[in-house]
Design goal:
This protein is mostly helical. It has 4 helices and no strands. It has one domain.
Length: 99
């Protein structure tokens, strides 16, 4: 189970009709689904995302070019958090989606 699936299950646990293995149904309209999508896109980066991005940056120092040797290895998580937050901020901006 992915981190996202695990988090979704803890926030919205699967509910079954009493005495049955049939899942309860609920009604949602497109506004509800769009709001859920937006909340997911705008959510703060998780610790798992930050650690994964920091690990990627640490294992690919060439991305920083000749300045790579000047980067404090203890700051990769801070850099990753900033980059991920900048990406989240971009999707919150008004206007057309970047393609």
């Amino acid at each position: 189970m992915s981190i996202a699936e695990s988090e979704a299950e803890s926030v919205y646990p699967t509910r079954y009709w009493e005495g049955a293995r049939t899942k309860e149904m609920f009604e949602a309209d497109t506004d509800d689904l769009q709001e859920a999508y937006i909340r997911g896109r705008e959510a703060l980066p998780t610790d798992a995302e930050i650690k994964a991005a920091a690990k990627y940056l640490k294992t690919n120092p060439g991305l920083f070019g000749s300045s790579a040797c000047f980067i404090d290895p203890n700051r990769f998580e801070e850099i990753a958090r900033g980059v991920l937050q900048a990406a989240r901020t971009a999707v919150q901006a008004e206007g057309k989606a970047i393609k």
